[in-house]
Design a protein that fits this description.
This protein is of the alpha/beta class and 851 residues long. The chain folds into 4 domains: 232 residues, Hypothetical protein af1432, CATH 1.10.3210; 238 residues, Rossmann fold, CATH 3.40.50.300; 247 residues, Rossmann fold (3-Layer(aba) Sandwich), CATH 3.40.50.300; 61 residues, no CATH class. 36% of the residues lie in helices and 15% in strands. It has 27 helices and 29 strands. An 8-stranded mixed β-sheet has the order 7-11-6-12-13-5-14-15, with helices on both faces. Helix 24 runs antiparallel to helix 25. The protein is globular and about 85 Å long. This is CRISPR-associated helicase Cas3. In the N-terminal section; belongs to the CRISPR-associated nuclease Cas3-HD family. In the central section; belongs to the CRISPR-associated helicase Cas3 family. InterPro entries: Cas3-like_dom, CRISPR-assoc_Cas3_HD, CRISPR-assoc_Cas3_HD_sf, DEAD/DEAH_box_helicase_dom, DEAD_box_RNA_helicases, Helicase_ATP-bd, Helicase_Cas3_CRISPR-ass_core, P-loop_NTPase.
């Protein structure tokens, strides 16, 4: 029988007469090219059930009500779930359903999000078996629709009017209106509250939060491991969906099921008899404090202090998860192991810490491998559904405990895909940001945005730093500027809360005396001479250079003269920096810890690296050789020196740092950059690693004036002398650098304004994200990532899959170019007309200087 379809101009919709019985049901999930399907009403119920289960958890609900500003009733919650049930209404469209049909159907395929908007343009009073009449009276229904169709990670624009009819034609063999009626009747039966109640008004903050929960619920409910397919509609399916949702949400640890082994006292965290002063200060804070800032020297036990804070808040029901953010991937890898070990001590059934680094599928000690069909297979036999959070970068923040870089935090605060999901997932966690001073103005603004949003939802934040200047601290605490004299005289170490500063008592015998010497000359030979001389006397030497080029230059000089003392992997001398494949970087991280870590053996050794070694790593060198750098960075580098009390070789019982400086002074750096310092001031903008030459001069001035530093007693005065705006303005005026100083300040303000344009303002109405530019977590050009041929072996004999090029080598490349590899030796990588050499010294250009 042929269907007779006519277009009714009145009301602008399609009607049918003598249309045959439906032969196809609407599917919501499909697999095996359409051979296996899950009914659309069932998938919609799954997502709504997950949403309800999450909303009934104490911490999640508290965050939702904080976003709304008032308690949310059960009837309102169920109306929200009914909205969630409609999130995939666009899948009714024949052009979407055809994706699961045999070929030659003749339909243009369509996306279900756009079709969702098209569906709203079909004004029919009998839509959804009449349920639409109830939805139409709900306040702000247009805003709710905007949120519904943002469930894949970002809002989508409403299409042009007049296209709805073409998206929903009536076809023989598939009656979308009949399928819509099935959804409508199910909605009325499963959510009867919609006839008498409505959801809470879509206030912007709550709407943004709802977007995140919906995205999370949809992702959870789309996993067949928790929600097996049922192709034929079953009116009793709602209870099945609830049962499956309860089970799956518990399995992946989105419920409040984490139980500490015992009360959150100090001995739950550590074997040490008593906490150290900084740890005791944090442990004594009330759980009603939501923003805590800990200023304490490196090596003072801040990690354990953060874990104790987490245990206390978890015990009080204030949080249900932890995200530990650090500046670098190397620091995240090392911290991940420490945190994972601590969890086995803290919990009766311990969660596995997820390593939140894209491309690194790691939960606890288990490593995952992604298969071609996007499934993940784990390298052990355990069944741990909570590893779901580690299988996709956008899900990292849904983990009970995750350790990663600050970039994951920033992604929750920017107008990028999955920002809502990340922000909502983070809301239940204690957010710890370690080395908070390390972020530039752009990064600080993006982190500030999500921290303020997090606090607005009733979340908890712990900021930690050894070297945070007053100007930066006041930004985090939303305080007015202060004067240099007062800021430099404040007690250190300290904890800051809503009540202000709380001094921390000095740790008996906990300080260290460091002799710091300025060395005129910073070539690779200069650094190598100093390192080899010390290593010959049995010292474990850490050399930190500002650029990869200088690190490689220093490595080449040491390898020529003393290769046996260099850091080694499988007997191969090497160094540590960012231009290694990810697989080789993991080997390097472990090798560095073994060479100069807390438990490293005595004996001469030289570890050369860049900024990848300066923060959050538990290293314990006998001697530090470092390039001149800003004061806060220098103190961080010094934190890798004599970090622990342990045996030292003769001549190195006292801590000593040698600071390599340009032999001609710093004035030239205001005109031309060298070794990562300064910038080309006559260019259109300042760019470089450390462009603040007045800050560098102030640092060198303190080295000259005070050749012996008492750590941590002098930390506050040293940092303020080299970072406080008053101090830098004075120094710039003395040296005639006012114009340069103004450009540095202007650069910071410009970066802050750039961040403001990219930040997701959760107090503003929901709008589409910009798509005409690439928003990043860190400013600066990004290099392309090269995919290497299968079977490529890296610098140390292990398989490697990708290499990231520096931005300056990537111009003209897209990353899609064919890549050829000759294993050599040396191993060469050819892309376009560029030939790269990859080996134990990292990636470099053939004939280039490696900058």
């Amino acid at each position: 029988m042929r269907a007779r379809v006519e277009l009714l101009t009145l009301g602008g919709f399609m009607a049918r007469e003598d249309f045959p019985d439906t032969r196809r049901s609407a599917w919501g999930k499909s697999a095996a090219n359409g051979a296996e399907t899950h009914h659309l009403a069932h998938h919609s119920a799954d997502v709504a059930a997950v949403f309800l289960v999450i909303m009934r958890q104490r911490v999640w609900r508290a965050r939702a009500e904080a976003a709304f500003g008032h308690p949310i009733t059960e009837a309102e919650t169920r109306c929200l779930a009914a909205l969630v049930f409609l999130h995939d209404i666009g899948k009714l469209a024949p052009g979407f359903q055809a994706k699961g049909w045999p070929e030659n159907h003749g339909l243009a395929l369509r996306g279900h999000l756009q079709c969702g908007w098209h569906w709203t343009g079909l004004p029919r009073a009998d839509a959804l078996a009449g349920a639409v009449t109830h939805l139409a009276r709900w306040p702000g229904i247009a805003d709710w629709l905007m949120a519904l169709f943002a469930h894949h990670g970002r809002p989508v624009p409403r299409p042009r009017e007049g296209e709805a009819l073409s998206a929903f034609p009536l076809l023989p063999g598939y009656d979308w209106q009949a399928e819509e009626t099935v959804l409508g009747r199910a909605m009325l039966n499963w959510f009867p509250e919609i006839t008498t109640s409505c959801p809470p008004p879509p206030e912007p903050t709550f709407l943004h939060f709802f977007c995140g929960l919906l995205n999370l619920a949809d992702w959870v409910a789309s996993d067949r491991r928790g929600f097996p397919f049922e192709a034929e509609f079953r009116p009793s399916y709602w209870q099945t969906a609830l049962d499956r949702a309860e089970n799956r949400v518990a399995e992946i640890e989105l419920v409040e099921s984490a139980t500490l082994r015992e009360p959150a006292a100090w001995h739950l965290i550590s074997d040490h008899t008593e906490p150290r002063p900084a740890q005791r200060a944090v442990g004594a804070l009330p759980t009603t404090e939501h923003l805590v800032l800990l200023e304490a020297e490196t090596g003072s036990g801040k990690t354990e202090a953060a874990l104790w804070r987490f245990a206390k808040l978890l015990e009080a029901g204030e949080v249900d998860a932890l995200y530990f953010a650090v500046p670098t991937r190397a620091a995240a890898r090392q911290l991940h192991g420490r945190v994972n070990d601590a969890l086995t001590r803290m919990f009766a059934v311990h969660p596995e810490a997820v390593l939140a680094i894209p491309g690194q599928i790691l939960a606890g000690e288990a490593k995952g491998t992604r298969l071609p069909d996007f499934e993940v297979v784990w390298d052990d036999t355990q069944v741990r559904p909570a590893r779901w959070a580690a299988e996709h970068a956008a899900r990292y923040l849904t983990a009970r405990v995750a350790v990663g870089t600050v970039d994951q935090v920033a992604l929750a605060g920017l107008q990028v895909k999955f920002a809502h999901l990340r922000g909502a997932a983070l809301s239940r966690a204690l957010l710890v940001i370690d080395e908070v001073h390390a972020s530039d103005p752009y990064m600080t603004e993006t982190q500030l945005a999500i921290v303020r949003s997090h606090l607005g939802l009733g979340g908890h934040v712990l900021l930690m730093s050894a070297t945070l200047g007053a100007a930066a601290r006041r930004r985090w605490r939303n305080e007015m500027a202060g004067n240099l004299e007062k800021d430099a005289s404040l007690p250190y170490p300290a904890v800051w809360t809503s009540g202000g500063l709380h001094p921390i008592q000095s740790e008996p015998g906990g300080g260290k005396t460091v002799r710091i010497d300025a060395h005129s000359g910073w070539s690779g030979s200069d650094a190598a001479d100093l390192a080899i001389q010390a290593s010959a006397h049995g010292a474990r030497v850490l050399v930190i250079r500002n650029t990869v080029a200088r690190a490689q230059e220093t490595f080449a000089a040491c390898r020529e003269r003393a290769p046996g003392w260099l850091l080694q992997i499988a007997g191969i001398p090497t160094l540590h920096h960012s231009r290694f494949a990810a697989e080789d970087r993991a080997l390097l991280d472990r090798a560095v810890e073994q060479a100069i870590g807390k438990d490293s053996p005595l004996g001469g050794r030289i570890v050369i690296g860049t900024q990848t070694l300066e923060q959050s790593l538990d290293l314990c060198a006998d001697l530090l050789i470092t390039d001149l750098c800003p004061m806060d960075v220098l103190l961080q580098r010094i934190g890798r020196l004599h970090r622990h009390t342990r045996a030292r070789p003769d001549g190195f019982a006292a801590a000593r740092a040698v600071v390599l400086c340009p032999p001609g002074g710093l004035d030239a750096l205001t005109r031309a950059a060298e070794n990562g310092l300064g910038a080309f001031a006559n260019g259109p903008s300042l760019s470089g690693v450390y462009v603040d030459v007045p800050g560098l001069a102030a640092t060198l001035e303190q080295i000259t004036l005070h050749p012996v530093w008492q750590i941590p007693v002098m930390n506050r005065s040293l940092v303020e002398a080299a970072t406080h705006p008053e101090a830098l303005d004075r120094l710039a005026e003395e040296r005639g650098w006012q114009a340069y100083r103004q450009r540095v300040t202007g650069k910071a303000l410009a970066e802050m304004r750039t961040a403001d344009l990219c930040i997701l303002d959760r107090s503003a109405p929901l709008e589409c994200f910009p798509d005409d530019e690439k928003i990043r977590t860190r400013l600066g050009e990004e290099g392309v990532i090269l995919s290497l041929p299968a079977g490529t072996v890296g610098a140390f004999g292990a398989p490697v899959h990708r290499l990231a090029l520096p931005a300056q080598w990537s111009r003209g490349l897209t990353g899609d170019e064919p890549v050829s590899v000759d294993q050599g030796p040396p191993m060469t990588v050819t892309v376009s007309d560029m030939v790269l050499i990859y080996g134990p010294e990292g990636l470099r250009q053939r004939g280039g200087n490696g900058t």
